[in-house]
Amino acid sequence: MFKNIVVTLDGSDNSNDALVQAVDVAKTNNANLTLVSIVNETSYYYMGSTVTVGTTPLPTDMKEVQRNAAQKTLDAAEAYCSSQGVSVKTQIEEGIPKRVIVDSYTREKGYDLLVIGKSGTDAVSRVLLGSTTAYVVRNADTTVMVVG
Asked: I want to staple 140 with a disulfide (CB 3.0 to 4.6 A). Which of 11, 13, 103, 106 is the partner?
């Protein structure tokens, strides 16, 4: 039924649950599986050269910090997939996650199933801008499986 599956990962428990489901669906359907993690540009856009929270300085290159975290998430997910006998492709993207997911992974790249966790790690963005998952469900041009 599904031949090209993509799962979005942000390191949250819900995205890890989404990965488990995506692997099961990929195995059942003998489908291709792609793992995607998105570096959220809104998290580092306003960062200056000196930022502190209380007395703790934050990294000045938040983009690089997020890229490293995304790579660690993908590496762990790829190891899990390998342990389940599923080969995968991985991709790190940059941008506003909900827009990247809808524009690139439900419209342009030909995936017939997108698997996503019901909520992710970015609670502040969710409160201010709305849930990534809700946006994806409303705007996707493909089947969406929400796991959580």
From this structure: 106
Cα 97 to its chain centre, rounded Å, is 7
Provide the whole-model pTM: 0.83
Distance of alpha carbon 105 from its chain centroid, rounded? 11
pLDDT in tens, 14-60: 999 999 999 999 999 999 999 999 998 776 544 444 455 566 655 56
CATH at residue 59: 3.40.50.620
Q: How many domains does the chain have?
A: 1
- What residue numbers bound the domain in which 89 lies? 4-147
